Amino acid sequence: MADSDDWRVTISVSYAQAGQAQQSFSLRQVEEDIRRQVGGGIVAGAGEAQIFLYAGTEAAAGDAERIARDVLAGHGMAAESALHRWHPIEERWETPGVPMPQTKAERQAEHQRLVDAEAAESLATGVAQWEVRAELGSHRQAVALARKLESEGRAVVRRWKFLIVGASDEDEARELAGQIRQEAPADAAVMVEQAGLGWPFPPS
Q: Where are the beta strands (DSSP E) in the chain?
């Protein structure tokens, strides 16, 4: 079953038009007008010069797009629109023509392509794309685990009872998290997430 925000319509208004709109009514007011007309099945949000409509189906997204265009036309504003679908494995918005994997083998192949791309980007940029965060029960435990991971060639940042370790891709990060869970005390909290701090990779 599709999530309520699998489909996204991006309505783009030129900066000049957005500026004119803000003189008499803000783009967010236009968004509210659209929100009232499209109904409860659509999630709407506005940026500086864009309105985003999220829907559960392609048909609902198309209806919301037509309503949005009518509302904007009523305010004397022209706009361009684009339709995208969320790709849960690639974790990005794609055009509707991009096929979704249907079988387990196809999903595994998509996942492997994503992992390979992450690893390649890590090597090309020297920045890890994923990280493992661990919260230990004490400062002493964090120091001990950090030293062990560093002895294995891992790039580790330690902050009192917390450790953050960089990984090249999601699979490596999950494998590393499993290793840390085995080596850390049972009450340690270990999480895997996309990196946001610019870890060096390969670890130096």
A: 7-12, 43-46, 50-55, 80-87, 92-94, 130-135, 156-159, 162-167, 189-194
Fold of 108-194: Alpha-Beta Plaits (3.30.70)
Q: What is the Cα–Cα distance from 184 to 180, expressed in whole angstroms?
A: 6
- Rounded to the nearest angstrom, the gap between the alpha carbon of residue 17 and the centroid of all alpha carbons in its chain is 29
Answer for the pair 100, 172: CB distance below 8 angstroms, yes or no. no
Residue 200, classed as helix, strand or coil, is strand
- Give 24's pLDDT tier (boundaries 50, 70, 90): very low
Domains of the chain, by residue range, sit at 7-94, 108-194
- Tell whether pTM > 0.85: no
CA distances from residue 131 to 47, 91, 134, 152, 198 in whole angstroms, order as listed: 30, 17, 10, 16, 10
Round to whole Å and give the CA distance between 46 and 27.
7
> Domain 7-94 falls in which CATH fold?
Alpha-Beta Plaits (3.30.70)
Chain Cα centroid distance, residue 3: 15
List, for residues 41-100, the tens digit of each pLDDT value. Answer: 666 666 667 888 888 888 888 888 888 888 888 877 778 889 988 877 666 788 887 766
Q: Which residues of 139-149 are buried (b: 16+ CB within 10 A; e: fewer)?
A: eebbeebbeeb
